[in-house]
Amino acid sequence: MAVSIERPEPSVIIVKGEYSPDEVASKLNEMVNNYAGQIQIPGFRRGKAPKSMILARYGDSLKQDLSRELLAEIVQEAIEKVPELENALYTDEPKIEKIEEGKPFSVQIYAEIVPQFELKKYQDFEITREEVPVDDKEIDSVIEDILMRNSSLEERHRPATENDFVKIEFSEADQEPIPMLVPLDDPEFFQFFAELVGKSSDDTLQIEAQFPDGFPDRRLRGKTGKFNIKVVKVMEQVKPKLDSEFFKKMGKPEEYNEHDFRKEVREYIGQQKSRQADDVVKSKLIDAIVEANPVPVPEKYFQSRMNDYINEQWDTSKIEPEKLDELKQQIASYIRKQIQYEFIVDKIVEQEKIDVDDQEVINTARGVISSMGYSPDAAEQVFKPQTEQFENLRKRIKRDKALELVLSRSKIIAKTPDETPQGKENSNADKNQDSGESNSP
């Protein structure tokens, strides 16, 4: 067997392997001899059937088995020559010559590996962090949403308005009526049930409609024709008041009041904004890491990652070819940057000797499973040790730790929207924070 390695590009490896005709014949004879003792051909004792008869009956199957065996040997030899091949990013389907008597057996494999590059910088970055204050309008908006989600429907003995809910009986000809609750403030319903405005209990009417396949009420999807409607009840959505009764239902202490509620909402919004600001900082830091450490991306691996991402996010069977090309152009820079970051952060992990033991992986897995609404005890069934899924989670934890390490070694400059991240403005902001002053309303 002869195995050669070609490297037309730093990240590209072409493996060429070949067995001579004599080697192929010897391997095939050995396989036939081993196989002969396992089969019974009529007219011959076990193991005594001639080679020609065995090949006539089972030759194609034996040659396929031999082809796989020889390919495995070539791959193993190639890995011994280039250990990085064991974790190749991408490999083409091997080009394999058929096994034929008197001819050599040859294999060619195209593979892409992680490129070699110099880790130039992964600390001492300066990143601005937007400190966005919480204003009263945001608090009012969140409170309004909470009140709407805790509102109730109360019957009104008057004609329906555009903001009401109308309980109706909806029927087709010769069909049993369907009880429905129509929210007239919902545009998807209003366009078909606008005639309910001005109607009262016990009123009847007929509408003609063609309901789309995506209509919110599944019972009406795709239905077309004339429909009879009887108004059963007109109902108004009533929001609760911010009083002791409402706070009690929310599990708050007796002395809790509206001021406490607004303060709690402000803190909640502030925490959300802080998390968003942290995410933006990490995104900026990733951009800075990638910019500071140029690394090439193997082309076929890049294309495969982009295709995988598109297939996960969209149904490509419903996308026209030209639109698919446009989509690829739009996401190409994002995918390329993500791959570059993975190369770089994995090298940081290696250089800083960041390790994660099995227990930490299991603990993280329990958190992942719990966040999905399942019992954390199921984690060890979903993320079984020594599986690819388990090791992928370990790699993700290592990468997260590496990014946190880079973050801890960088300078984060706080900045509010009306400030610049440098000079006196930033110094004053720092002084305000140190003295406990706050810009919050």
Helix and strand layout, with pairings?
Elements: E1 2-9, E2 12-19, H1 21-36, H2 51-81, E3 90-91, E4 95-96, E5 105-112, E6 126-130, H3 136-149, E7 152-155, E8 165-171, E9 178-183, H4 187-193, E10 204-210, E11 224-238, H5 244-249, H6 258-292, H7 299-313, H8 321-351, H9 358-371, H10 379-382, H11 388-408, E12 411-415, H12 423-435
Parallel strand pairs: 6-12
Antiparallel strand pairs: 1-2, 2-5, 3-5, 4-5, 7-11, 8-9, 8-11, 10-11
Helix pairs in contact: 1-2, 3-6, 6-8, 7-8, 8-11, 9-11
Explain what this protein looks like in three dimensions.
There is one protein chain. 47% of the residues lie in helices and 17% in strands. It has 441 residues and is of the alpha+beta class. The protein folds into 3 domains: 2-112, Alpha-Beta Plaits; 152-238, Transcription elongation factor, GreA/GreB, C-terminal domain (Chitinase A, domain 3); 259-435, Orthogonal Bundle (Trigger factor, domain 2), CATH 1.10.3120. Strands 1, 2, 3, 4 and 5 form a 5-stranded antiparallel beta sheet that branches. Strands 7, 8, 9, 10 and 11 form a 5-stranded antiparallel beta sheet that branches. A two-stranded parallel sheet has the order 6-12. The relative contact order is 0.10.
Give a short summary of the structure:
The protein is α+β, with helices and mostly antiparallel strands.
